[in-house]
């Protein structure tokens, strides 16, 4: 019997989490405060806290979702074995910067923090799961907000590189895939999470955000060089919050507006993958009166140290219009978007567009000619536990099936793709809302929005579905296609 699958035999199937949404144990074993540790839950104005973090820091809230999260810190062995049971080939996770350097600018690492990740990485390798590590996933130490307004200050480059140096040396030979910054373009949209900054009172916030972006881009390039110097087998990727933006109409004004919107994200990857600032960015800086301060060798550093692969998150496509009167918008994961009448919309305003993933993959590869790695994709939805303890999440299976099928078609189009790690493979706290109700996982965690629950883990129907997808290398999704 012929197996029909576009996925290569060494394709890395898996899932993804982030320390700040998953680990809990927020002060255990010497850890410093993370950015999210001062944020309240959805009922107490989380978005206001995200946009005014210093006010949030001075406020005492009733409940902080991150302080316990789903307690991966004490459930890591159980969770990793569940991942292995599904057949994971890779697991994407982040290393909490303040768990290793509690204040961000410490000169020596917290050994207890390294020991925790030793346990995770060693168990991953024993279970034949390839670690994929994000170095900074919205987790700049909170202390740096107060000391220097985070990445607005160039000194952050040295602090970050000290962190990287410890990780690359400590995990040499055990970790081969690294991401320098999670969704690096989010610094423009949520500068607190993306850059550990408060720009709420800034006279020229765009100047601060793009200057901080430059600091991260230089840091990423120097980290790429450092990783290759320490271990030539290291593969370093950038990470984009992606999703093709469509024009609302064939009106050329709408088409150009969509082009500009897409470029807002591509700007970062243009620098990380091509090594230079694109001309359209230079025009944007001029129009916004942004003047970047650069060290004499910054441009040479960017040019000489481009990434090995392009990783990205994809949840939905977006839609835009040049007409400000057109304002029928859906939330769509921080990025404002018009409602696309051809797509289904979730409770949280996200629209399902599998073909959009195929389009995004083709656009990224056409633009950069480097291998892709899909490191976030999934559906946030409410799950109901039946009387007999089952979770029937057909809606999640439908979303994932549509997206994974589209990913396979993009690979068949000729787009090289290293792997796929769906988001929140075990239920975790939502970054934007602080909710538990917005679940993504294949495994249900008994915890509610108020922090109640046993934290017991229960596989959902999607757990067994994804297990079959991995076991068949995706062929279960295809019938008679020829690839």
TrEMBL record:
GO terms for cellular component: cytosol. GO terms for biological process: carbohydrate catabolic process. The active site is at residue 376. GO terms for molecular function: beta-glucosidase activity. The keyword Hydrolase applies. Coiled coil: none annotated. InterPro entries: GH, GH_1_N_CS, Glyco_hydro_1, Glyco_hydro_1_AS. Keywords: Glycosidase, Hydrolase. Belongs to the glycosyl hydrolase 1 family. This is Glycosyl hydrolase 1. It comes from Latilactobacillus graminis DSM 20719. The lineage of its organism: Bacteria, Bacillati, Bacillota, Bacilli, Lactobacillales.
